[in-house]
């Protein structure tokens, strides 16, 4: 199955998300791998959001989705300086949505703490999402999508405080969580700037205390 045309024919929005993930800018400026991961990780929230709407998004499809991103990154990483000197570590790990990331190889090794369960296959991480519903993560309101969030913030002149949260049926803390999980931080801050508000600070990456993780080490010059 060629996943890009397959997806485009069935769900153009998810196809665009896949392409954005494949071509996202990557950064290895920090000497600390956890900071590199914070810059490079992508929560595959759209994959789980659309899985609630399409039964063809199963474990096999999820696996191919992640593998296509990782394959594109392997190719693109050859254009980054660590390719010649250090190599990289690719990751897919379990969170509210499956999450891909990449860091340059350093003496620190794996950047993540917590109780890690390393698995040998991408499919082993994706199996954790079988029969799960993305909407259940936001059970207070059902299935909130990014457009709902941005529309509410726009309606309240860039505010992410109580009035906006109440519009969506959320607490303020839950609204911030939704913004983070949908990777809307840049768009939200552009709206805030438009309405003359200061940028809001959001977490860059917060790891769960225990999770399953797949790792691939790419040596220098691979």
Describe the structure.
- The chain has 222 residues and is of the alpha+beta class.
- It folds into 2 domains: 3-134 and 208-218, no CATH class; 136-194.
- The chain has 11 helices and 5 strands.
- A 5-stranded mixed beta sheet has the order 1-3-2-5-4.
- The two termini are 26 Å apart.
Name a few traits of the molecule:
alpha+beta, five-stranded mixed β-sheet, 11 helices, 5 strands, globular
Largest β-sheet summary: 5 strands, mixed
The overall average pLDDT, rounded, is 90
Question: What fraction of residues sit in β-strands?
Answer: 5-15%
Number of domains: 2
Number of strands: 5
Find the structural class using helix and strand composition: alpha+beta
Overall geometry comes to: globular
Distance between the termini: 26 Å
Write out the strand line-up for the largest beta sheet, numbering strands in chain order. Answer: 1-3-2-5-4
> Helix amount, in percent?
40-55%
Summarize the structure.
This protein has about 220 residues and is of the alpha+beta class. The protein is built from 11 helices and 5 strands; from the N terminus they run αααβαααβββαααααβ.
Topology of this protein?
Blueprint: H1 3-10, H2 12-23, H3 33-40, E1 42-43, H4 45-51, H5 59-76, H6 82-85, E2 88-93, E3 99-104, E4 115-118, H7 122-126, H8 146-155, H9 162-167, H10 172-181, H11 185-194, E5 210-218
Parallel strand pairs: 4-5
Antiparallel strand pairs: 1-3, 2-3, 2-5
Helix pairs in contact: 1-2, 2-5
């Amino acid at each position: 199955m060629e996943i890009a045309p397959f997806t485009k024919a069935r769900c153009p929005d998810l196809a665009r998300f896949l392409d954005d993930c494949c071509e996202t800018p990557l950064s290895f400026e920090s000497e600390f791998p956890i900071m590199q991961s914070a810059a490079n990780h992508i929560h595959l929230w759209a994959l789980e959001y659309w899985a609630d709407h399409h039964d063809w998004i199963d474990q096999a499809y999820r696996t191919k989705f992640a593998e296509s991103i990782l394959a594109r990154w392997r190719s693109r990483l050859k254009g980054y300086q660590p390719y010649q000197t250090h190599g990289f570590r690719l990751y897919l790990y379990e969170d509210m949505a499956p999450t891909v990331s990449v860091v340059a190889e350093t003496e620190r090794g794996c950047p993540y703490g917590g109780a890690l369960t390393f698995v040998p296959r991408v499919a082993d991480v994706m199996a954790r999402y079988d029969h799960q519903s993305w909407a259940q993560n936001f059970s207070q309101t059902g299935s909130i999508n990014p457009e709902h969030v941005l529309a509410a913030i726009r309606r309240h002149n860039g505010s992410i405080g109580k009035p906006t949260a109440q519009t969506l049926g959320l607490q303020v803390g839950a609204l911030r969580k939704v913004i983070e999980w949908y990777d809307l931080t840049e768009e939200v801050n552009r709206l805030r700037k438009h309405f003359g508000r200061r940028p809001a600070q959001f977490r860059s990456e917060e790891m769960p205390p225990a999770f399953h993780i797949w790792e691939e080490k790419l040596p220098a010059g691979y």
